[in-house]
Amino acid sequence: MILLYPGSFDPPHLGHLDLIRRAASLAEQVVVGVGVNPDKQSLLGDRVREQLLRDACAAHANVRVATYTGATLAFARSLGARALLRGIRGGTDLENETTMATIHRRLGLDTVFLLADDAHAHLSGRAVRLARSAGLPLDGLVSPAVAAALNSAAR
After folding, report:
1. What CATH number does the domain containing 92 carry?
2. Which helix or strand (DSSP H or E) is residue 28 part of?
3. Where in the sequence is the domain holding 36, given as residue range(s)?
4. Cα distance between residue 33 and residue 24, in whole Å
């Protein structure tokens, strides 16, 4: 089974990497889809996010990373993916993701939910961006490579 893990990954944080690692042990192939929204200003460029994720996933032979524009459903179909991967940090995530999963299911695409590890349940791209803008250390939030990319982007 091909499993698509779509997201903006802006920036990729340790919670994302944990889900990818766990999904790699469950699925035949995992595609990490870096969604590109030309109408949205990203902290890190599309290619930077793609490369950071590619480097972080290098140890997993069954994981590949690709950028895409447009609808996630169309991208999933182009890959032959049977399901989407979504991480759940808490009740709000579950409520929001269940709504989307219901829509996707009606369109022929299942959703696999993985609960966030307790160590990463507080992580979100927004939390990382807030910590960075406040000048707080990023240890425990992102990998050293992502921290370096964020520091470079700040200059």
Report:
1. 3.40.50.620
2. none
3. 2-154
4. 14
